[in-house]
């Protein structure tokens, strides 16, 4: 049985809400990454900017189970300036030797490309099994549970494959339900293709 841990960092609360919802849907435990030094006001905002631009690994506190005790760790991570949020970078760096398989839910302000999955690959030496994006608006949408469930089911399927693959789910619940979507409807990365998932077609990176 695949044991899954969800780990999140959340400066504004958006990623935490999404992570808690995923845990509630699947009964998975939650670990939380926090800043060792709080980010407040303008100074805190500038720290976020510099952490991203310089790819810094700021000091963190982690409250949760050991990643080594789980087959898969799902990272629910904010994106700052198209890059992985500094505190989540610190978590991945600190625990990289304990991360067996990783899946990523990136939380962005607006839809668009970013390099979080590639950065995680560089740090851990392994590509994430799955990757999908949510915006802050998605996280507050009552229908986001459908996409979270789809992600969870796809994660189980991905564990059955020998070769890891990154999955990018449809950007809205309505599109996911509709199925049969074509490439032009998605802001895909250059190496992305389509793969059948169940009776649906979802973009894969």
TrEMBL record:
This is Flavodoxin. InterPro entries: Flavoprotein-like_sf (IPR029039). It comes from the Bacteria. It comes from Piscinibacter gummiphilus.
């Amino acid at each position: 049985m695949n044991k899954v841990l969800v780990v999140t960092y959340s400066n504004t609360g958006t990623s935490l809400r999404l992570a808690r919802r995923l845990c509630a849907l699947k009964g998975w435990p939650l670990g939380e990454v926090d800043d060792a030094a709080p980010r407040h006001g303008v100074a805190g905002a500038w720290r976020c900017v510099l952490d991203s631009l310089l790819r810094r690994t700021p000091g963190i506190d982690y409250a949760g189970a050991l990643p080594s005790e789980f087959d898969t760790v799902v990272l629910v991570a904010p994106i700052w300036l198209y890059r992985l949020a500094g505190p989540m970078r610190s978590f991945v760096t600190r625990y990289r030797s304990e991360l067996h398989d990783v899946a990523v839910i990136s939380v962005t302000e607006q839809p668009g490309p970013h390099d979080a999955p590639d950065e995680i690959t560089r740090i851990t030496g392994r590509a994430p099994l799955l990757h999908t994006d949510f915006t802050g608006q998605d996280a507050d949408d009552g229908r986001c549970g459908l996409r979270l469930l789809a992600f969870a089911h796809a994660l189980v399927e991905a564990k059955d494959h020998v070769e890891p693959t990154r999955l990018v789910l449809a950007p809205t619940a309505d599109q996911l339900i509709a199925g049969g979507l074509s490439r032009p409807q998605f802001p895909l990365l250059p190496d992305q293709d389509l793969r059948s998932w169940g009776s649906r077609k979802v973009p894969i990176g």
